[in-house]
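Narrative of accomplishments. A recurring question from our advisory board has been how the design workflow behaves on a single, concrete structure rather than in aggregate. To address it, we present the structure tokens for one chain from the evaluation set, followed by the sequence designed for it. No filtering or post-editing was applied between the two.
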């Protein structure tokens, strides 16, 4: 469990998967935020202090590739983990790592390990005067 409440953004096209993942991350001590639609992710990252982004394989490849490329340009130091289930394509070239979610606990282990080896910081420039969308 983390000692401070870090914010993790999640990006998925599967509502049930979002709920399960967000509950697991929250139970592990993280604050979790999720955009209403995948295209809202950049605004969310700029409006909040996000430590990492977890991207689900359910986001179609072309959309995922485009969004992650844009995120990398705007937030080059943001930790990005792409999660998939065994047997699904593992491609997410803009992510720092691909994590097999066949065992969901692997995500927490991978996240903790990556965060241990990186300075915790605001990894995406944001405007403190902006109000996050509701």
């Amino acid at each position: 469990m983390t000692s401070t409440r870090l914010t993790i953004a999640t990006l998925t096209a599967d509502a049930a998967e979002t709920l399960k993942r967000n509950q697991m991350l929250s139970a592990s001590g993280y604050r979790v935020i999720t955009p209403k639609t995948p295209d809202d992710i950049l605004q969310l990252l700029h409006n909040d202090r996000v430590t990492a982004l977890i991207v689900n394989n359910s986001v179609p490849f072309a959309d995922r590739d485009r969004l992650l490329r844009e995120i990398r340009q705007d937030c080059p130091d943001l930790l990005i983990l792409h999660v998939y289930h065994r047997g699904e394509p593992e491609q997410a070239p803009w992510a720092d790592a691909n994590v097999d979610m066949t065992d969901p606990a692997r995500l927490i282990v991978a996240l903790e390990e990556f965060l241990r080896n990186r300075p915790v910081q605001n990894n995406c420039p944001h405007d403190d005067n902006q109000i996050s969308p509701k």
